[in-house]
Fold:
Amino acid sequence: MRILPSIRSIANAIVAIPICLTIGAANSRAEQHPASGLTARSHLGMVVSVSKPASEIGRTTLDAGGNAVDAAIATAFALAVTWPEAGNIGGGGFMLIHPGNSEPPIVIDYREIAPAAASVDMFAKGIGSQYRLVGIPGTVRGLKLAHEQFGRLAWKDLVEPAAALARDGFQISAELAISLNQVIETSPDNKELRRVYGQENGKRMWKADDRLVQIELANTLALIASEGADAFYTGKVADAFEAEMKSGGGLITKADLVGYQAKIRTPIHGTYRGFDIFASPPPSSGGTAVVEMLNIVEPFKLRQEGRWSAKTIHFMLESMRLAYYDRARWLGDPDFTKIPGQLTTKEYAAELASSISLTNATSSAKLGAEILSPEEPPNTTHFSVIDRDGMAVANTYTLEDSWGSRIVVRGAGFVLNNEMGDFNPRPGITNSKGLIGTKPNQIVAGKRMLSSMTPVVVSKNGHVTLVTGSPGGRTIINTVFCILMNVLEFEMPLRDAVDAPRFHHAWMPDTVTMESALLENRKTQIDLLSKMGHHISHTPKRQGDAHSISVNLQTGERTGAADRRRDGWASSQ
Ligand code: DON
Structure:
């Protein structure tokens, strides 16, 4: 484990301020806070997330003297309350921390783990019940590990604001009302979910500005606040978790919970036009794939072709295809799988780039027909934080599906993930619908399932200039790639870079999906791409939800851009 004496001594020297007392006042202040909204500008700290109350709790943490990691922890706990379809304590994710100086960035890997009773062919004959899809959650120990490394304020002051929000309730947004109504409507037999998240057990529909109160979640969070992360893994909460598992044929035991450990990992590092790119390492595929793609396109000088030229889109699509092929071949939990070091080198990218035709799309099947990947649904959440000193956090975490397994732990009030679905379910069996049977991501007890989550921080000479990431299952990596290209190659302002339409290709299936604005406004280019052999179709709904921050390295001004595709709020100091 990395020791950071300088940061620890700062932490010890600072008297923690009870920030929970200031939240109410902060909420009313935020109403008039001129620099906050869909877009925020400031020379100080900011938090950008999918949920206004969660961003506000993060910003209030900064106001109370917290650093970016403190604000990220407070925001993550708050999102478990205010964005329960993906914000969580029952799931897992990746937090990339860039100290904003010469110290090396790190990643906190709090990905879920397969329980001791899991086995390679446990899904070979089908899933069985949702209970079997639950991985051992990592969020609470992950946030605790981040706090041990970098935290400045007291742990309890970072958890209590979320507990208070759950206990007192908050006014829901229109987006959250839609999400609640959808999950309730489509879970007619899930009594606990309907009791906890329904109005009158689901008899009445939610609408914007209704108040959501979550007493049992408040109690769980209060325990975590007062007793620390172990309250989740060893105490009453763990008892309730184990009982819930037993009731539905789940595999996770209390011993699994006690044994969960978050890990500190070295981020994937790449460069692009003199910028340093830091991103999530395996067991996420995100950092490896995005750096591989950037390396492939860098020599083509796409700036002079224009952002929306067929040539630019073609090269980006070809690099996606190549990187996703490698993703499927090589990537898995590095504690169980040997991953080739060359994937993120410029030399390897040059070799791959030389295979790209200027005029024709490569056939994905010719590249490799033997492996395909499991589906990953589009529900996760990403938030970005920077503090006044330039330390930044990119955090992406998930329950896997929207609302995860939809199992609410009785008496403890939180939703469980269904992340085991990210493993390759049937060893050796592949098909054109996207099943994969290759070894690197097969199920083993104690192993982490492969992820696509791609929290990224870009810096120059140690100074942070971009913080981004997104939900979207396998599309995540391409959403982040599009944003990185928009900012680093095409020098778009962050607002435009986040708004710009996105596209996705994942090697298999051999199809390009594009957001409407691109399909409708660039018909000439789309025709050309089709003639080159790209199979283009429409993105179902939208691609990603990338709440991002940029820093102008000349002026020091920060811009926060919430992604308008769903909800979102940038709160700045
Ligand atoms: O870890 C992963 O890549 C997926 N389980 C994330 C799921 C996801 O992104 C759904 N997203 N929006």
